[in-house]
Amino acid sequence: MKVNTIGFIGGGRITHIFLKALSDSTLTPDRVTVSDDRPEALAKLRSAFPEISVTSDNRQSIAKDLVFIALHPPAIQAVLPQIKDSLPQQSVVVSLAPVVSFRKLSDLLGGFQRMVRQIPNAPSIVHAGYNPVAFSPAISADERAEIEAILQPLGQNPVVAEETLEAYAILAAMG
Fold first, then answer.
1. What confidence tens digit (pLDDT) does each residue in 86-113 have?
2. Strand ranges in the chain using DSSP code E only, listed in sequence order
3. Nearest-CA neighbor of 101 among 92, 89, 113?
4. Cα(53)–Cα(61) distance, rounded to whole angstroms?
5. Of all helices (H) and strands (E), which one includes residue 47?
6. How many degrees, rounded to 5, is the angle at CA 72 between CA 137 and CA 98?
């Protein structure tokens, strides 16, 4: 897998943090697309990062090598079933939401298995985050290394067991 394109579904604060980290690094992919149903969120991102593409169509964001799901858990429940038939099988989905397990993500995506979960936090905007990450068994060692390199500008990204991600989310939220 060579990540040349990245998509984000959700154009809120965490997507801004990721785009800032990517733009500060040499790892910026050739093309980034962000989808959101809020025009004001897309306009704000486009103003801050003029090189990205923005759209209200989630299918344009998922037609990428690496797809970040930057939505709150209730929105994930609604959006993922709508995009499951358009998701390329070679893509890797990175969920940035706590609580939604690999099993639930896979169910919502019609059995899709190529997934990563990460619990990002705000200090990532200055490359000082502590963002635990878990990889599904469907991610190869080479893919894992490439994804870890993309996440590196955010700060520390320790690989942890999926079942411990929620504990890290609670600790990071507390401070």
1. 999 999 999 999 899 999 999 999 999 9
2. 5-9, 31-35, 53-55, 66-69, 92-95, 115-118, 129-130, 133-135, 155-156
3. 113
4. 9
5. helix 39-48
6. 45
